[in-house]
């Protein structure tokens, strides 16, 4: 039969997919959140090839045995589902399993072509489907347990390649600029660069948003005794304290304009003049900066020349919702710190926590799991133990009722797009809801509301809302 000239949308999607390879990642089992046995499964690359998904006879890491993908999960049927490569797409079918096969929380009734980022539930196992370029698939499939990224491993293709780049860049003296949403792991990445750099000096973190404007220069560059009222003794300043090591400028977007000019000189000249001092002092430091602001947008107030100096290597770290394949390692890392020997989670709670947006990223996951681990008693973690999920639902409902900006979805990582900003003052309740949602961290609340932190502070002052924490490290 002659092929129609016009292809259907599905066929067009498939032809796009042919340039990519589908990777199935076993992420975690709801019954054992401490297992940390996430792994990338061998990809199906040949047209018509298939594998069946079934229950492993014993508890062992998920693996392909012959043409069967064996999952170490008693809730998986012996012959549960089938994955077939058909016309360039990976198609998932349920094989009449007892508990069904779910994609993004919906039970599949017929064959379902998978798309990038799909979340699969088979029994009590969570898997993520990712589409990647063939050369990335080959590399990742040869490292099924992921690559090291700071304290944990990553299976996320984008982060894995960024992490490999960061490791190479770390050994040079190139400055690194980390762009990511709040709580997405910027400081973890900065420490990773410092630790792999081989630099003998310390890692000194400076939260540029947490220091009052008039003290920033003294804090960074140090000061002579008597340089200003209150300067009762001489201070080296953070930059000189990092001699031979790394200065991590966190929340760079909040650095006051006057300090931006002075910092530019320090980076260019590699010397620091303390406030009130006359002689410049040589410094040898590596610069890493991080921000969740759109520094590259045209209307950014940030100095372009300083940005250019700090942007030796720019890493756009993915938010947690774009790296759900790492949930298994992250969850095991976070819960490992609680000292518990076993932790499980109900399907309902797992969906509420792992399938949601998580605007506070890893920090939000960390807080949610740490408090759930306390509240669950003998377990498992259920929805009522996840106060963050309930708080978000309540805040959404109240924001909807107020018609306020607090209901806005989380922003994507800074891409150079101008940020949303609103000069219209939200209601007092919307501001309170944003503060409650972010555990009263002002920077994060401002981001939720789509405004600069200073704007939020002005609104809080106008309503008489007590000042909150500038950063989460004050928690
Ligand atoms: N791989 C990991 N394992 C366990 N916890 C992690 C991991 N990565 C990050 N975290 C935790 O998540 C939280 C946020 O990480 P981090 O401070 O690096 O994010 P950030 O992007 O710098 O946040 P902010 O924007 O608020 O400065 C921290 O409490 C950190 O300990």
TrEMBL record:
Start and end residues of each Sigma-54 factor interaction domain: 157-374
Origin superkingdom: Bacteria
PANTHER family: TRANSCRIPTIONAL REGULATORY PROTEIN
GO biological process: regulation of DNA-templated transcription
Gene3D superfamilies (alphabetical): 1.10.8.60, 2.60.200.20, Homeodomain-like, P-loop containing nucleotide triphosphate hydrolases
Name of protein: FHA domain-containing protein
Organism: Polyangium spumosum
Record key words, sorted: ATP-binding, Nucleotide-binding, Transcription, Transcription regulation
Domain FHA as annotated: residue spans: 51-108
InterPro entries linked: AAA+_ATPase, AAA_lid_NorR, FHA_dom, Homeodomain-like_sf, HTH_Fis, P-loop_NTPase, Sigma_54_int, Sigma_54_int_dom_ATP-bd_2
Region (Disordered): 399-430
Single Gene Ontology MF annotation: ATP binding
Segments of skewed composition (Low complexity): 399-409
SUPFAM superfamilies the record matches: Homeodomain-like (SSF46689), P-loop containing nucleoside triphosphate hydrolases (SSF52540), SMAD/FHA domain (SSF49879)
CDD domains from the UniProt entry: AAA, FHA
């Amino acid at each position: 039969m002659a092929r129609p000239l016009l292809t259907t949308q599905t066929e067009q999607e498939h032809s796009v997919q042919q340039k990519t390879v589908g990777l199935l990642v076993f992420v975690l089992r709801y019954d054992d959140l401490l297992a940390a046995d996430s792994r990338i499964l061998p990809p199906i690359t040949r047209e018509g090839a298939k594998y069946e998904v079934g229950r492993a006879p014993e508890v062992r890491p998920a693996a392909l045995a012959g043409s069967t993908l064996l999952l170490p999960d008693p809730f998986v049927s012996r012959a549960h589902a089938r994955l077939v490569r058909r016309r360039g797409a990976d198609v998932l079918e349920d094989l009449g399993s007892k508990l069904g096969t779910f994609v993004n929380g919906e039970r599949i009734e017929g064959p379902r072509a998978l798309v990038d980022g799909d979340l699969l539930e088979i029994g009590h196992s969570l898997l993520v489907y990712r589409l990647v370029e063939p050369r990335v698939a080959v590399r990742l499939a040869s490292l099924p347990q992921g690559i090291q990224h700071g304290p944990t491993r990553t299976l996320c293709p984008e982060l894995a390649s960024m992490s490999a780049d960061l490791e190479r860049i770390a050994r040079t003296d190139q400055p690194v600029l980390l762009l990511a949403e709040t709580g997405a792991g910027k400081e973890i990445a900065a420490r990773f660069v410092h630790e792999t750099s081989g630099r003998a000096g310390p890692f000194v973190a400076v939260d540029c948003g947490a220091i009052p404007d008039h003290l920033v220069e003294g804090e960074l560059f140090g000061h002579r005794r008597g340089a200003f009222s209150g300067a009762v003794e001489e201070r080296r300043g953070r930059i000189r304290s990092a001699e031979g090591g790394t200065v991590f400028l966190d929340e760079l977007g909040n650095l006051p304009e006057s300090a931006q000019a002075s910092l530019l000189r320090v980076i260019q000249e590699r010397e620091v003049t303390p406030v009130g001092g006359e002689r410049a002092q040589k410094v040898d430091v590596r610069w890493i900066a991080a921000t969740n602001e759109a520094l590259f947008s045209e209307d950014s107030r940030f100095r372009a020349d300083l940005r250019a100096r700090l942007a030796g290597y720019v890493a756009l770290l993915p938010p947690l919702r774009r790296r759900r394949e790492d949930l298994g390692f992250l969850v095991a890392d976070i819960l490992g710190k609680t000292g518990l020997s076993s932790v499980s989670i109900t399907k309902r709670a797992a969906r509420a926590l792992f399938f949601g947006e998580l605007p506070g990223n890893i920090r939000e996951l960390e807080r949610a799991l740490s408090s759930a681990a306390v509240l669950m008693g003998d377990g498992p973690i259920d929805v009522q133990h996840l106060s963050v999920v309930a708080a978000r639902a309540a805040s959404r409902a109240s924001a909807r009722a107020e018609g306020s900006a607090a209901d806005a979805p989380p922003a994507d990582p800074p891409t150079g797009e101008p940020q949303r900003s609103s000069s219209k003052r939200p209601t007092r309740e919307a501001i309170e809801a944003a503060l409650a949602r972010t555990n009263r961290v002002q920077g994060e609340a401002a981001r939720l509301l789509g405004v600069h932190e200073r704007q939020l502070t002005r609104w809080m002052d106008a309503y008489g809302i007590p000042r909150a924490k500038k950063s989460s490290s004050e928690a």
